[in-house]
Write a structure and sequence with these properties.
The protein is α+β, with helices and mostly antiparallel strands. Helices cover about 35% and strands about 15% of the residues.
Length: about 150
């Protein structure tokens, strides 16, 4: 089965110039771990924003440096930081987006998407067409659901 048959096509995408405030409004309706694709004027996929990118705004730099080192006790005082309301307009998507990310083309199989997600340790990936234009998002649950559906469980 092809990814285009399973992926979500009704998705939220932003441009690199989108202010933080507008980005946060887009995230507000998500449950779980959101992934918002970043596209250019031609709808070409150029980046992604996820909840970790947002947390990086408020995390102390020291925490990011040591978060993958075992046995290091890092105090995360993110909620003690003072916020300036103007940061909602001053910080834009380009400041926080990931430019190194995995994506997959819509004509690939869901098996390949599953393997890519497992290898990359991600739960969702943006889907592009042959012109590298954003066409959707596929997640692990979409694949699991389809497998159960094929087997007649749902």
């Amino acid at each position: 089965m092809k990814i285009s048959e399973v992926m979500h096509k009704d998705i939220i995408a932003v441009k690199r110039s989108t202010p933080l405030k507008a980005l946060l409004e887009n995230f507000k309706g998500f449950h779980g771990h959101p992934l918002i694709p970043v596209v250019d004027d031609e709808k070409k996929l150029i980046g992604i924003v996820n909840s970790d990118n947002l947390l990086d705004i408020i995390r102390p730099q020291k925490s990011r440096l040591f978060k993958n080192i075992p046995l290091v006790d890092v105090v995360d005082d993110s909620f003690d930081l003072e916020f300036v309301p103007s940061m909602g307009q001053l910080i834009i998507v380009e400041d926080i987006m990931e430019t190194k990310f995995v994506s997959i083309q819509e004509d690939e199989s869901i098996d390949k998407a599953y393997r890519l997600m497992r290898l990359s340790k991600v739960d969702r990936v943006p889907v592009t067409n042959k012109n590298d234009e954003l066409s959707g998002i596929i997640g692990i649950f979409d694949i699991i659901w389809e497998m159960f559906k094929i087997k007649g469980v749902v």
